[in-house]
Amino acid sequence: MNAELILSEHIAAIVNTLYGLQTEPQSVVLQKTKKEFEGDLTLVVFPYVKASKAGPEQTAQQIGEALKARCADVHAFNVVKGFLNISFTDAFWLQTLKNMAATKHFGTKAAGSSGKTIMLEYSSPNTNKPLHLGHIRNNLLGYSVSQLLKTQGHHVIKANLVNDRGIHICKSMLAWKKFGNGETPKSSGMKGDHLVGKYYVEFDKAYKREIQELIAAGQSKEEAEKNAPMMKETQDMLRQWEAGDTATIDLWKTMNGWVYEGFTQTYNMLGVDFDKMYYESNTYLLGKELVQDGLAKGVFYKKEDGSVRIDLSKEGLDEKVVLRSDGTSVYITQDLGTAIERFKEFPELNQLIYTVGNEQDYHFKVLFKILEKLGYAWAKECYHLSYGMVELPEGKMKSREGTVVDADDLIHVMIQTARETTEQLGKTEGLAEHELQHLYITVGLGALKYFILKVDPKKKMLFDPKESIDFNGHTGPFIQYTHARICSILRKAESLFSTFEVNTSLTLHARERELIRSLYEFPAVLSEAANGYNPGLAANYIYELTKLFNQFYHDCPVLKEENEAIRKLRLSLSETTANVIKTGMNTLGIDVPERM
User: Fold this and answer.
1) With a threshold of 0.90, does the pTM exceed it?
2) Residue 14 CB-density burial (10 A; 0-12 exposed, 13-18 middle, 19+ buried)
């Protein structure tokens, strides 16, 4: 039962009859009634005032009276200035609950039902260091948006473009070659990505020492940075890699292999995965032919120094180099080629989404504009899912200096904090050791994911591990604990009833009505969160729903209710709430335990 659709059809018929209009139901604007007023949905009557030849309040009164006489589902209405607040009958909401309870995967659409295929790229790590807190936000955001898009019936291809080549990769390789003494993940006991990251930091230390020595010998800072032996050797190593030197390629493969093993462990802990892996080492030459095609079309032009550029000043952007004077490609050249290859590989693709931090906003504006100028109609379907940086109370992080918040360390801290908090609150009774370990991981990662995803992606955020795990705050553990509490109620009830039925002739308690109304909004919330690529909308909805359930449970006895019909209704309401919490948290990549 769609409340908006029911009202829209009746209201359109009413204003057409009363005022001689030709209003279509889809043009009727309804909104959720504000909390301070009584009602379920609100009609803004100003569009009909001219035709009614009456004031806003009188017009609202006329429509309200006609609506109550015409629609059996409308229980009452009230008028506040030019707003008509409409309340549905208890029978309507009880039937709505009955329908929701009977609908498998309520709120979501069948897989593939939209006929739309979307590729969503996220993670995109460098293989010279482990994943850090910034990567965590990227991975969680990308994975969650893919889950939300699936709820709308879209086919989603989760892609990862690994930055596995370039000068920064060679820095780790050179430092390991010079200072590593054959150290491996096995010999050191370190995860492979951590070991490689260690040598990225070692390179920076050695490079800075050399710069200081050259400055002391009389060179300027700029000269010293160019002439430092470590930098020259790194550049030489990159040339050897591009020339296919066997020893360089072998070392590159070995060290990248260590990193991939480490990444896999981190991805598994975060619960994210990918359908398609791309590697920059395979894609960095893509786009060079495209430049020649663009030159022929007059989209690009060649400067006197031999570089190839595009002038986007008329579009409010700058001049952009797409090929250097020595014929080598720049990053955007590769991105152009990769985008085109993806649409060739997946001709059914309707949209391509890039999950990348907001420091790359300009890059993607240029990328999409160039694709558009090259004549690719699908360029308008490319989207940059931009997000703000994550900071800790201590401030910003720097990879080269080794001051980043490592993803694995943070995950470990979260699990440990979950253990301590859970034990302090006495929520471990009756669980075996393996169940407790699983619970600590579930709660710790639930806290991490929820705290990050509840924030609008566009906003910069401050992450506080302790605040994120508060069982009574706006947190994942608060929601997880409520879900477990509902499951406990349902387990106890199973011995009393085989099914939880809804008698549509009952009178609803205010808390019951409030909770049913909130559950009814779930499909619209998922749709809005998916269309806006904003998991925060889903996260905050689930939190508000969880608070409403706790208020309902406080005011409305469930198992202790003496009237059997009311008891069954409240059990059905509890079960539907648990299902919506589980589905909603699943879109955030968060597990909800049944026991805590």
Assistant:
1) yes
2) buried
